[in-house]
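REVIEWER CHECKLIST
Item 1: Sequence provided? yes
Item 2: Single chain? yes
Item 3: Sequence as submitted:
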Amino acid sequence: MSEKKLTEIYIHACEWSSIKFPQLANRDTKVTNELKKSLKFLKWGIEPHEVITLSRLVLIVTAVIAILINIVYLLNFSPSIIILSTNAVVPFLFAYLITEYPKNEAALERIDAIGSAPTVLTQIVIFLKQNPNLERALQFVTKYSEGRISKELKEVLWKCMMGQKTSIKEALISLAQQWGEYLVDLKRSLYLIVASVSERNEVKRNQSLDRALKISLDGLINKIKEYANNLYLPTLFLFSFGTVLPLVIISLLPIFSFLGGEFSSPLQMFLILTVSIVVIYFYSNKIISKRPPSFASIKLPKDLSIYPKANHLKIKVGKRDIEFPALPYLILTFLVIGFPGIFYLLSETSFVKLIPNTFTNILNSFNTLTLIWAFGIVIAVYSYGTSWYKKEIRKKIKRLEIEAVDGFYQLASRIDEGRSPEEAIKFVGESMPNTEFGKLMKKTYNTLRSRHTTLEKALFDEEYGTLNNVYSKNVKLMFRVFLTSLKKGVSNSAQMLFTISNHYDQLNRTEEKLKSTLKNALSMMRTTASIFAPMITGLVITLQQLIQNGLKSVNEGLNGMGYLNLSFLTTPNFSVEILQLISGIYMILLAWLLIRYVSLLEYGKDEVMLKTELAQNVPIALFIFTLTLIGSRIVLGA
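Item 4: Structure as written out by the authors:
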């Protein structure tokens, strides 16, 4: 389910619960300031008391269900501390999740929003260096850029036009104070930009603008460095609690079984791992919500001809792209791969009885392993089938933006030599033949010659403009600034292109520094998700099998010698195959959580990169898990 659909369901649930159960909460109900600020920032159209109503309703419903489960369990089995305590805590966890959801979403949205600030500030600075008119600069930038900061700047312009603010400077200072609560350096940069417009000396004005941009970029680097240094302990906790501790508990189940078989039942083992997953989810969200902004993720077009239909997957096989409905084919994939495991589970019940033969031996050798493969492969196929084509576009956009920095520098150099813009474009197209930017320039020059049109139409005409199939807002904005600067003369245009190149080069260098700062911590988490966790899980299952086999052999030996079966040597009342299934699914869910954590830290709310990471790492985790399981059983003789 996409984040957008989940948000829509959440909003409808809040509205519905508030209408149907108004007695649970009202406008006078006390709520935290954090929740108020989060909902105001998100602009979902729901009130804080509606969230509290849904939270309390969920608490009541889940508490009733938990009580019924406890009653049924106590009537049929002996009392269980784990099940009773879990059922007591789960309703409060669900209620907490309801109130935390908008807070987490607001934190992620805020990070993503502020992440676009350096690019927007760069665009404003570039325009103001050409024309020190703040209102026109905002009009130009907001017309061709996107993101939350851009929308806020549009609102600033609108308030000035409607007379709600006396001047554009006053409105921008108000915006600086609003965002300064989350990023002080952004407020300082906006103050300097406002002050630079009043500076009559052009050199000092440009220095103020350069300083504004430098403060913003340096502030981001310092924040990320500080955050990266503080990531060690949270990351260590995630690794310990998420990977080591739950699996150590599982490996000690034979010891727990000395206290009674019910204490180490499959249900209670499942509850232990479920609680672990929930804790990891909440804790990782807390870490991510404190992450400072870096750079906004690349925004892709919503609808393109290469995208598959809604609820369809698209898989690349050789040179062919195959499109098919997602749900039926994913279910079919799960059933085909997991069939031996499903059949094995059925054979453990009284409904299906197997006759010993070759098929039965093969079935027993695979047992529940194929169900783990099926679960992981379905996740990987879905992630790949909904992301790879978008990633290709994303890579193309990123490559073009990086190449544009050198391309615009070359354009500036050629124009500064006295060549016309058309000749400069031809030169860049010939000197950068194997690059996206060089191909764009070559295509633009050919359009100029064949259609005998203006440079603006060659680039932006709705019918034949060469930028029609370019999805980078930054590159389009660079060309808009270039065309605007040409109206003031060729010499002014060359200087503007140098400015564009230098400032965007600064942005690219800063982004690389930020990624380099986080690299070590993120590499460790990726390795944990795809290698360490699957390896530890596989070893724990083998060790569990060895312990159970050992206890069984000891009991058989004692019985053969005429001794009574010793109660403290009883084995847990579940098979290793069931342990394998539960642990394998836990391993995949843990991989998903850790990869999500890494993706949000590195890319922000970028669904394409999250799915790409899942498509790459889940198959690796399955391979390592299977290899460890087989290898450890061969080496240890389990």
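Item 5: Key structural point noted by reviewer: Strands lie at 312-317, 320-325.
Item 6: Recommendation: ____
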